[in-house]
Structure formats: structure tokens, C-alpha cells
Amino acid sequence: MGDMRHIIWDWNGTLFHDIDAVVGATNELFRSYEIGPLTHDGFRACYTRPIWVLYERLLRRSLDEGEFDRLDREFHEHYHRLMLACDLSEGARTALQGWQEAGGGQSLLSMWEHGRLVPKVEEFGIHRHFSRVDGLRSEAGGHKAEHMVAHIEALGLDAKRILVIGDSVDDATAAAHVGAEAILFTGGMTSRADLERTGVPVVDSLAEALARA
User: Fold this and answer.
1) In Å, what is the CA distance from 134 to each residue of 13, 15, 56, 58, 60?
2) pTM above 0.90, yes or no
């Protein structure tokens, strides 16, 4: 099975079903502005990156100086509380186990804080499936593409053997940047329409993603 592809999984919105926490934290954030509450679909309809642009869309005005830093800090306070009730995405364990049993390699690359990511992955007991787990090790997040380059270099693999499974346009862009293929999952924050505009396959379940892999 040496010719099996290596899957690089995304975490938030892909393996980790945290849309409830993301939307809930956003609603908490904008309650004092008397905006919302947003539904999942309502959130996806206005979601974009960078996040400050999303906040300006919701507020329908430019952010004041220092306002984003405050909103970002408060969002994460709400998110880290609400995510405790979140679980893995439906089919995540089966997908990870199935690909491992088929002889494929797997790793995890997230734009979430490395210091929070690793214990969360271990808490779910799925760390054994990954040859490498990388989250953000600095505050400056940037785009996923630069982190994808470093992740693949650390793995020592040819990008042509790699499949990226994520839930955002950023995942598709990062895959294209290194010459890997991508499949996008609709379980995260991005609308299906926005995912389909990338031109890569879009699926509604992790089981379907694995079948296409």
C-alpha cells in the first residue's frame, strides 16, 4: 500500500464540528450591538476572511481603532468556553480509522493555536492516527499556504501524493500553492457556493470525502 496518498486534515470545521461554538461566540459578541442572533446559514452567508471584514459587514461600518483587537479577544473567550460542548464531526473517527487501515498516511494542520490544538486532539484519542500535528505557534496567523509549505517539508513528502481535506477557501488555496489536491467539506463556516467557486470537489460528509480520496 506504499502508493496510498497522504491526507492532510484541517481541524476546525472539518474534523472538529465547532460551528455551534463559532456562531454562538459571534452572537455573544454582537449582542451588545443589538445584531443577530445569526443562524448557521446566516453566518455562512456573510462569512469571509480576514475576520475584521466579516465584523465590518455585520456592523455595516468600518471598525474603530483598537476595536478589532477587543472583538477578537472577546470572541476567543466565548469560543473557548462554548467549544467544550463540541464533538468531532460525524464520521470523523471512522474516516481516520478507515484511511489508516487502508495504509494511507495522515497528518493534521490547523490555524488554531498549537498549544490548544494538541491537547484537544489527544483528549479525543485520535492523535495516534497522525504522523504530525501542527497548529499556529505564533500570533501572526497569515494565510494557510505558508504553513502548508512548512508542514509538507517537515513530513518529507512529495506534494503530488498529498490530498488536503478542509472546510474553507483557504484550504483549497493552500493546497494549490504547494501543488496538492483538495476536497472541501461543507460542515464548517463557509457556504457551499463559496466553496464551489474554488473549482475543487465539494462534499457534504467526511465519508464522501474519503470515498473520493
Assistant:
1) 16, 14, 30, 31, 35
2) yes
